[in-house]
């Protein structure tokens, strides 16, 4: 049996972040860890560094690091000692993060001609580089000759860099310093290039080791550990996901998903796949191994746990995201779409938690963007009734993120003429009216943005559905017109969102055609009669009175 708690607590945090518009780091940047940042003086800082340094390098730091009282010294980034027990790969990434940060700051100090600071930071980078290489060589298996070559190149160039900056602090002649600055800049650039190339080789090597371990092991425990490490790597940014995809990570993980002996690892494996498929290379690999067919088989197999179905839905949500520019690979998706949509609707209906519903509804919402045929399938499956019923259960639809997915599906389905009667029967107009009042409880920027999307899409859905006189009449009776006017005239009600304003103006104009008596003359003259762009400009220039 699969353990449903495999994805529980850790997954809950991931769900809360899933729809906050999180971006991956630039592919050229190094992986960035969440660091424990503390403000310390120079001696305290050295005591912290001591935990990551070898004895000889500690002496180097002790002799070379100045005890500075400069203001910027107080804000330098440090690793807390709580990370001393981290696994080797995480330690490597943290060390790489420190070096990357230090190199950036050296460039900043160099720009300001602060040579003493440049030299002391160069010494520190030299120590960190040597420590990183020493630490890595103590745990890595079968490092390549190319890696050893880059290690030597980097160490030599760091020594050269330190010697350069030492000569700079021994002269006070501005002309000489000016002529040396270009050489120092050039050396810094070379150090950064060698460092980036070495880290790329190291991460590729480790990804290869993990994937080889997954492929060759028959042990559930060993495979689980390797997949867990692989998942940790995927959380370091898009660049690492590309490395894993290029090394065949998607192929390897789908092999696990096709072996019954590893069923207990399906949720963890699918979660890792969803992360890798955020990049184009991962998507192409998924297409090559018939990944969509495998996902369809998992979703339609009732013997799998809810956790497995939810993680499969997460992969579907990822690969069908309307924000992705690469969708050519999804040609095979159409062949399996009906089966997948049917399984996702069932998962929404039977969801035991808000997290499961969010993943399933997010996948459905993305699919409705992907192909209009999905809306017709949803209508045939009575999905409208199921989704509206779920919204009345606060245990299942418990966040603006979930309501955002539901109203997205309603908005995309509302282009179908048959949708109006389904909405009315399911008390959907009342739900849309409630969504026009959506407010953030936490005040976080991500949740506020989700609330804006809910307001906008509920107004869009009302505008589309109000072409049906019965829907328009129901909306008028539920006082939708006064609420739409309030959203148009009060910037704070819509959190100053222009997209909400445009959607509300469109809905208001549609309802005004069906029920003109619901508007006062001033509202009609300002919000309905003028061109839409003129009404928009009028509303965006309104200033609320706080008297």
TrEMBL record:
Pfam families named in the record: Insc_C (PF19427), INSC_LBD (PF16748)
Domain Protein inscuteable homologue LGN-binding: 38-82
A biological process term (GO) from this entry: establishment of mitotic spindle orientation
Molecular-function GO terms, alphabetical: cytoskeletal anchor activity
InterPro entries: ARM-like, ARM-type_fold, Armadillo, Insc_C, INSC_LBD, INSC_LBD_sf, Inscuteable
Domain Protein inscuteable homologue C-terminal: 95-547
A GO CC annotation given for this chain: apical cortex
Protein name: Protein inscuteable homolog
Species: Pipra filicauda
